[in-house]
């Protein structure tokens, strides 16, 4: 459902649905971050990423990929470098999401 609302640009419905969920996991958090990114809400995506971190939710390569896209779109170099350092520290840099094909 969240993906459908996101594709229609209805972020408020995504947020409402997220808040109604009794349990939120890495998939739901990443879906929210991605929804903001897809709809140009880059600052909100980064804010939700920090909420996810504070909540102790497990980060995935999809989470990092989405939030790095937000930092790149904002030209937020320092933030992007800090998040990239998290990618390297968690050894996710070699997953398909982050590899560059030559």
UniProtKB/TrEMBL annotation:
GO terms for biological process: RNA modification. InterPro entries: PPR_At4g14850-like_plant, PPR_rpt, TPR-like_helical_dom_sf. GO terms for molecular function: RNA binding. The keyword Ion transport does not apply. The keyword Thylakoid does not apply. Keywords: Repeat. PPR repeats lie at residues 25-59. It holds the Pfam family PPR_2. This is Pentatricopeptide repeat-containing protein. It comes from Brassica carinata. The lineage of its organism: Eukaryota, Viridiplantae, Streptophyta, Embryophyta, Tracheophyta.
